[in-house]
Specification:
heterodimer; A: alpha/beta; seven-stranded mixed β-sheet; 14 helices; B: mainly alpha
Chain lengths: 369, 292
């Protein structure tokens, strides 16, 4: 009699695989984390409808890091203790830098939404990006500054966290190589509310264009202040600046902003992205951001690679990921032809986007680099 | 020069809103001899009342503002006094201070649970169109924020000094026992103070949220800065709250522009330490005698 519940539980466990969704569901990173979570949730429901992973139903537990790196580290450990086969998260680079060591120690694959270059430079064989890092994304902007905008001097406004520092470092190197002078280098703090001084400094330096590298809320507040002070030069960002949430928060102040984005829900000319965007809007009654796509791709990549490996084994998963390319024709939910190198860095085609009349519009594509 | 003017005007506009919040600290101190550590959350919450009015009840923006103001006065003024201050105050000021801290956490977490952790856009009362002022570009919204805040301080000062009700409120603040003997309805005067504080907090919320965006955690920053502004200016003087708020707003922007942006968050604390060392009663404050 006593053994019956245990047998049932064991049988149930054998029929399921667990994923640990560790993300910024509150705190400064909540806009990124909640979209990441919802993209992942959508993917889990689709994976289950398609037969699950290795024929087993997927269960995904949610862990809120509160945008605190130390909390994220503890939660990754908690998720692993609870038997997950992969970690889906985190988005903020400062958290990933801390928690990816825990996943590595336990040989658990981890798909992250973080873009700081340092994440894949640490030589962690268990961490994989779901979008290109800043060292791939930011250089894609260089031809735009040099050839399209014909900029001779630029300004950079960046958020002083791991994400911002990574992007700013790559940008400064790129501008140096391109022979473009950086005349204003303005750092702001995470969760900063008043951007009057930052914009005034940029305005005073009078660059031909400004590179804006901040998280969502900060980007929105910056755009609002930039409009208030009539900052006339083009504002160009990487990833976040033209995101749906930023546009929603900044309203009309977002019009004209340009960004290079690894993947965008507005690229509806790609059938997989169009289907994802439609499904996400129907499910969550809002437009998806690039973080939602990243969370979605993270779960589907976990399914595809685990099925390819044929068992839930972190070491085997890691071996399979090195140099792996998944073609959208064969693995449609990966959305675009995608490759990972031996450090977990991702390569795939990307897009240039501009906000026009309150909507992000694709103005060009950038080949995989 | 235009950059200096730009930063100065922007700092004044932000500082004026800090001042409105700081006045709340002063008023509650005068009415109940306590510090309301939920004051920042008192400014965060009214924006959500307006969003509820607009998005859930389908009210137009201006009607939703009125709705938000009324609900704020009822919840953050009347209910705060009746349900928290009155029952707890007899147990001592420290108990009440702790209760306001708990209230702040409750309001913050409630906003997060009820409306989500993400920031929400909030419409502005005035257009953000740029206006050129001697080479500096400021928005009409900033000028209106500054004008409204200064106007409210002037009106409040006139009300307290020139009207019969205002003088009764001042008498109650200075010595409730004597005021009662002189025929002042002390309970009513204290109630007025809490209602005015709630209305000011709501107004500050409506002015600053278009820039800060509506978010459950806004009160943390606002409450701390306004608290410091009230101490720097003089905790027992409304004019002091104004001076403290403007000073912090301007110094914050000047420091970020001409010194460093990385330590701007520390500036109010440095200012606080300097003022406490040099002039403990604050710039405009008056020393309060104490019998031992």
């Amino acid at each position: 009699m006593v053994a019956w519940p245990a047998v049932t539980a064991t049988a149930k466990a054998a029929d399921t695989v667990k994923l640990g969704m560790v993300a910024e569901l509150s705190g400064a990173g909540a806009p990124s984390g909640t979209n990441w979570r919802d993209g992942a949730k959508l993917a889990v429901s689709e994976v289950n409808a398609a037969g699950g992973i290795l024929g087993k139903k997927v269960e995904m537990s949610e862990y809120d890091t509160q945008t605190d790196p130390q909390v994220s580290r503890a939660l990754v450990q908690k998720a692993i203790d609870e038997g997950v086969i992969a970690i889906i998260g985190t988005v903020y680079s400062g958290s990933t830098m801390v928690n990816m060591l825990v996943a590595k120690q336990n040989s658990i694959p981890q798909f992250v939404g973080s873009e700081a270059p340092a994440i894949v430079e640490k030589g962690n064989p268990f961490v994989y990006r779901t979008s290109s890092g800043a060292q791939k994304g930011v250089p894609a902007l260089t031809p735009f500054f040099k050839d399209t905008l014909k900029a001779k001097k630029v300004g950079v406004a960046w958020v002083n966290n791991e994400f911002g520092k990574g992007g700013r470092t790559v940008f400064l190197e790129e501008m140096k190589k391109a022979g473009i002078e950086v005349v204003a280098d303005v750092a702001s703090e995470q969760a900063q509310t008043d951007y009057a001084a930052d914009v005034a400094k940029l305005k005073s330096a009078n660059p031909d264009a400004v590179f804006v590298y901040m998280n969502q809320e900060e980007s929105a507040r910056f755009l609002i202040e930039a409009k208030k002070q009539a900052l006339a030069m083009p504002l160009v960002g990487e990833v976040t600046l033209t995101e749906a949430k930023v546009i929603e928060l900044a309203g009309g102040a977002a019009n004209g902003a340009i960004a290079h984005v690894g993947v965008t829900a507005t690229a509806t000319q790609v059938p997989g992205i169009a289907a994802f965007a439609k499904s996400f809007e129907e499910t969550f009654k809002r437009k998806p951001t690039h973080d939602a796509i990243k969370g979605y791709v993270g779960v589907w990549a976990t399914k595809y690679v685990t099925d390819l490996v044929g068992k839930t084994d972190g070491e085997a998963f890691s071996q399979k990921m090195r140099g792996l390319c998944l073609k959208a024709a064969d693995y449609p939910k990966i959305l675009l032809d995608t490759c990972w190198d031996d450090r977990g860095e991702m390569s795939r085609p990307s897009f240039m986007v501009q906000v026009k009349d309150g909507s992000p519009v694709v103005i060009g594509t950038v080949p995989a680099n | 020069m235009s950059q200096f003017l730009q930063v100065l005007l922007s700092g004044l506009a932000t500082g004026a809103v800090y001042a409105l919040v700081a006045i709340g600290f002063t008023l509650v101190w005068q009415a109940a001899q306590t510090v309301n550590f939920a004051q920042g959350e008192f400014v965060m919450i009214p924006a959500f009342f307006v969003l509820i009015g607009m998005n859930w009840l389908g009210l137009s923006f201006w009607i939703a503002l009125l709705f938000g103001l009324i609900i704020s006065v009822l919840v953050l003024g009347l209910a705060f006094k009746k349900l928290i201050v009155e029952p707890i105050l007899p147990h001592g000021g420290i108990t009440l201070i702790i209760a306001t801290m708990a209230l702040g956490i409750l309001l913050k977490e409630s906003a997060k649970e009820f409306y989500g952790a993400e920031a929400q856009p909030f419409p502005a009362m005035f257009p953000g169109d740029p206006i050129n002022v001697f080479g500096a570009v400021v928005s009409l919204r900033d000028l209106m924020n500054l004008g409204i805040s200064l106007g409210i301080v002037v009106l409040l000062t006139l009300f307290l000094n020139r009207s019969r009700t205002g003088r009764c409120m001042q008498a109650t603040a200075q010595n409730p026992g004597v005021a009662e003997i002189l025929g002042v309805d002390v309970k009513r005067m204290v109630l007025y103070t809490f209602l005015i504080n709630a209305a000011l907090a709501a107004l500050a919320s409506f002015l600053i949220t278009p820039v800060y965006l509506a978010k459950f955690s806004n009160g943390e920053t606002l409450g701390l800065i306004a608290f410091i502004a009230a101490i720097v200016g003089g905790f027992n003087q409304i004019r002091g709250a104004l001076v403290g708020g403007l000073l912090i707003g301007v110094l914050d922007n000047l420091t970020a522009t001409y010194v460093t942006a990385q330590y701007r968050a520390a500036l109010p604390l440095v200012l606080l330490i300097v003022i406490i060392l040099v002039r403990p009663q604050g710039i405009m404050g008056t020393s309060e005698g104490r019998t031992v």
